[in-house]
């Protein structure tokens, strides 16, 4: 068994041939399933080419294979995998080459002896090993190109080889359409992102220069209001002095607003320099600063031990400073207050979430989302402020790939929680 028996008759030999062709076809189809999977994951023309050139050869058992793309009126031999050089990198007019014939006729071609076929440009083949070939169009309805398989011995390629090559070409057409689709989508995303970035940068620069330019006239207002107050102290009545004080007070508030706006601007413009930050030490430092600002207040700080974040130290300090200042401010009407800084329990592998909690006046939770927009304040004149602090905090958090949320109820305190996404 196994050896070809010497006394087989013609019918038996033909049956053996058919069986081995069927086996080869089945093996080829199995192989093709894996190739189709690889093709479905290919995102670039190069990767499709690389898969196809070796698959074409392996599937058909040929001595060489080419991957040809239609480029207007010519065939471009984009890639090859063969025992000797073929036409990689060359271009031929569609009328003068067999891939052109396949592309124009939208059908596969089988050639047993290339020198007997007048569709073949014999000169281009004389320097190669090729004697026989099969060529199948990629996307039969409107060919994008063709795939060729070549043999060094003169032979008639089998039906199975033709079918396998055509199946590969059909899968390739889907892969190529995917590549075009992805390239188009990526290009659109890139263009959109660039556009948004440009608009953002322009707005940012505008906000920065406006804030900056407002400083000069403001200094003039402050300076002259002060000069009038000093020089005309004895001629002004109390009402006029009161007006002057309001001018000065408004100028000081505006100065504070400009500072806050410039800070907000800087938060977006400065490059992010991440490192490991001792959040516990940072929060302690800030709590001491707050306590020193008003030693008469009775505030207990509860700061969790061992908090470490991967963040930009200056920006994280600005964020915590804003949140802890708010906690300090919005508990100021209480005889005794408590301010907590800690990390929320999160699932394993989830990003770090830090929180700042107080037991102050709180706010209506439904209005929480508005607080993160610049100038949004809920507290009126009861508590001084600019309404830019939380906007600054959110920008900082977002630049770290995280987000911030607030939980609160009137007179029930507030908790601000924010995540920090570790570096990729
Ligand atoms: N801890 C807090 N408790 C109660 N309300 C708060 C707290 N933090 C922020 N808010 C509300 O959010 C608003 C915006 O905060 P923020 O942007 O820091 O501005 P500002 O502190 O200048 O008022 C505040 O005016 C206040 O209404
Ligand atoms: Mg604030």
How would you sum up this structure in a few lines?
The strands form 3 sheets. The protein has a 6-stranded antiparallel beta sheet, with helices on both faces. A 5-stranded mixed beta sheet has the order 8-10-11-13-12. The protein has helices at 10-41, 45-60, 98-105, 122-126, 159-231, 238-269, 279-293, 313-329, 389-399; strands at residues 64-71, 74-82, 91-93, 109-111, 132-138, 145-151, 275-278, 298-303, 308-311, 336-343, 352-358, 404-408, 414-420.
General description of the model:
The protein is of the alpha+beta class. It folds into three domains: 25-183, GAF domain (Beta-Lactamase, 2-Layer Sandwich); 197-268, Helix Hairpins (Orthogonal Bundle), CATH 1.10.287; 273-420, Histidine kinase-like ATPase, C-terminal domain (Heat Shock Protein 90, 2-Layer Sandwich). It is 49% helix and 18% strand. The chain has helices spanning 10-41, 45-60, 98-105, 122-126, 159-231, 238-269, 279-293, 313-329, 389-399; strands at residues 64-71, 74-82, 91-93, 109-111, 132-138, 145-151, 275-278, 298-303, 308-311, 336-343, 352-358, 404-408, 414-420. The strands form three sheets. A six-stranded antiparallel β-sheet has the order 3-2-1-6-5-4, with helices on both faces. Strands 8-10-11-13-12 form a five-stranded mixed β-sheet. The chain has a two-stranded antiparallel sheet with strand order 7-9. A hairpin with a 5-residue loop joins strand 12 and strand 13. Helix 1 packs antiparallel against helix 2 (45-60) and helix 8 (313-329) packs antiparallel against helix 9 (389-399). The chain is elongated. The structure holds adenosine-5'-diphosphate (ADP) and magnesium ion (MG). Adenosine-5'-diphosphate (ADP) binds at residues 322, 326-327, 330, 358, 360-363, 371, 377-379, 385-391, 414.
């Amino acid at each position: 068994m196994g050896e070809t028996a010497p006394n087989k008759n013609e019918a038996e030999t033909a049956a053996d041939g058919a069986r081995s062709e069927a086996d080869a076809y089945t093996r080829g189809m199995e192989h093709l399933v894996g190739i189709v999977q690889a093709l479905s994951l290919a995102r670039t023309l190069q990767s499709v080419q690389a898969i196809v050139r070796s698959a074409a050869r392996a599937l058909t058992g040929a001595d060489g294979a080419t991957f040809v793309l239609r480029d207007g009126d010519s065939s471009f031999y984009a890639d090859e995998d063969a025992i000797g050089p073929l036409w990689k990198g060359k271009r031929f007019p569609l009328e003068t080459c067999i891939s052109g014939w396949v592309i124009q006729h939208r059908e596969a071609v089988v050639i047993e002896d290339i020198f007997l076929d007048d569709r073949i440009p014999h000169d281009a083949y004389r320097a190669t090993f090729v004697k026989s070939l099969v060529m199948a169009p990629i996307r039969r309805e409107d060919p994008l190109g063709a795939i060729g398989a070549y043999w060094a011995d003169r032979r008639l390629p089998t039906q199975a080889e033709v079918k396998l090559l055509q199946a590969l070409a059909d899968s390739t057409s889907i892969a190529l359409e995917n590549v075009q689709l992805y390239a188009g989508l990526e290009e659109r995303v890139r263009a959109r992102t660039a556009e948004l970035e440009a608009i953002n940068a322009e707005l940012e620069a505008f906000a920065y220069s406006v804030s900056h330019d407002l400083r000069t006239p403001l200094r003039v207002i402050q300076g002259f209001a002060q000069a009038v107050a000093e020089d005309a102290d004895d001629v002004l009545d109390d009402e006029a002095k009161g007006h002057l004080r309001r001018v000065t007070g408004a100028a000081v508030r505006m100065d504070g607003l400009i500072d806050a706006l410039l800070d907000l601007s800087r938060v977006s413009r400065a490059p992010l320099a991440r490192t490991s930050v001792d959040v516990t030490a940072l929060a302690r430092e800030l709590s001491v600063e707050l306590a020193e600002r008003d030693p008469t207040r009775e505030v207990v700080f509860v700061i969790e031990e061992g908090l470490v974040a991967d963040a930009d130290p200056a920006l994280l300090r600005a964020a915590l400073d804003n949140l802890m200042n708010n906690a300090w401010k919005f508990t100021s009407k209480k005889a005794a207050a408590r301010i907590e800084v800690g990390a929320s329990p999160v699932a394993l592998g989830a990003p770090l979430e830090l929180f700042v909690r107080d037991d102050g006046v709180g706010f209506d939770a439904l209005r929480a989302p508005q607080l993160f927009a610049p100038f949004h304040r809920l507290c009126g004149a009861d508590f001084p402020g600019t309404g830019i602090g939380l906007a600054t905090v959110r920008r900082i958090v977002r630049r770290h790939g995280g987000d911030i949320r607030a939980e609160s109820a009137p007179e029930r305190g507030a908790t601000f929680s924010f995540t920090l996404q570790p570096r990729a």
